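Checklist before submission:
- one chain only
- standard amino acids only
- sequence pasted in full

Submission:
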Amino acid sequence: MKKSIILLFIIISFSQAQILRDDFNRAASTDISGSLKWRRLLNLNDTSATIQLNSDSTVSPRNLLGPFNRGGVYWDSLLSDRFQVGMILRHKNGNDNVPGFHLQVMNDSSWYTGNGYGFRFQANSGQDRIDIQRITGTGTDLPTVTLLANLNREFFDGDTLFFKIYPDGRKTAVYYSVTGERDSISVVDVVYNPSSWIAWIQGRVFSDPIRMDNFMLGPIPYPITATAG
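Returned file contents:
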């Protein structure tokens, strides 16, 4: 009887997650900002800036203005409590010291006025980098960015990157390698702590872009501890 109850709890716990993985396996199109609940990110360099669905089922930034311009989308459902935003790295490229891809949680869909936090991925020669950042809107195209934590290491195709958010203000960037290794950085910052967030995907446009797939968004499952007696 006890085993049945535990199994049922596991099924309920994981069924809540909003997973969009299957949606990325459709035929390629230019723009996914209207897909399901995705919306074009407002107030980037150009109104056409978005995220592109590639023919290999990966996603990458897109902006008609060309290289080094940003593209992005946001998920229009509000997120709260414990949740995570993640993607799998499928191809990395870019310029050293130029950020390539961001997973962000913000209180607004505007790059001009939104405040929140970001997980930034940057491809460098020899050692790549991930950052946890605080982002403060300034009313211009250049928000104030404060570095809270960083991790330097080499990343490979197939690695999974997560940005986890907790009610106590903790933000954790987690890396899972294709070989099963785990690494992470974590900070507690409550400068911005709204009752709910929206999730962003954003990145720089390169001629040979960073590509990711299997976007994962949803509640962080609570740990289950079983005891006898």
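Reviewer check: The radius of gyration is 18 Å.
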